[in-house]
Amino acid sequence: MRRRLLIAGLLALPRLVRAESGTQRTIIIGPAWALPADHGDGQLFVPLLNRSAMPDALIAARSTICPLVELRRNNRYDDPPLDRIALEPGQPVPMQPTDRHLRLVSLRQPLRIGESFGVILDFQVAGEVEIAASVEAAP
After folding, report:
1. Helix or strand or coil: residue 9?
2. Do the Cβ atoms of 85 and 45 come closer than 8 Å?
3. Adjacent-strand bridge partners of 82
4. 4: helix, strand or coil
5. pLDDT of 113 above 60
6. Could you give the dihedral angle defined by the CA atoms of residues 87, 49, 16 and 124, in that order, rounded to the nearest 10 degrees?
7. What CATH number is associated with residue 121?
8. How many domains does the chain have?
9. pTM of the shown model
10. What angle do CA 121, 139, 40 make, to 5 degrees?
């Protein structure tokens, strides 16, 4: 049930971005948002859904607001970053605080509620996609 709701939500949201591979739209990218942060590291959440018949993966991300973006399984600093986030066909990939997310390492500027910033997501098959992320309070 939860999976169906997430898929329905991803499909219905107006702020969606689609990654294209060839002429097909394969990756649905839900609204990207980050928690406010004054300094240090930030957290970015980008729900994903692979609509193709072939597996894909998020293999990297970058932004001008930090020198490094790590793919993370959780919030624990003692766990190593992930090499990739697998995107199996038809399987939603949620991101949320204390769970899977993108860590914005060594922020160059504070993240303030209401602001936004650019991020480039790099998918193994679908390629690079530039998105905008908004800074929002935790739900």
Report:
1. helix
2. no
3. 71
4. helix
5. yes
6. 20
7. 2.60.40.1890
8. 1
9. 0.82
10. 55
Residue 59 in tokens? 């293999």
CA distance 35 to 97: 9
Token output for 4: 């169906």
* Amino acid, res. 57: A
Is the sign of the CA dihedral 52, 47, 84, 120 positive or negative? positive
Q: Angle 38-44-48 (CA atoms, 0-180°, nearest 5)? A: 170
Tokens 């004054």 sit at which residue?
38
Q: What percent of the chain has pLDDT over 70?
A: 82
How many other C-beta atoms are found inside a 10 Å radius of the C-beta of residue 41? 16
What would the mean pLDDT of 96-108 be, rounded to a whole number? 95
Report which of 16, 18, 36 is spatially closest to residue 27, judged by C-alpha positions: 18
List the domain range (segments joined by +) for residue 52.
Answer: 2-135
What's the pLDDT at 10?
45
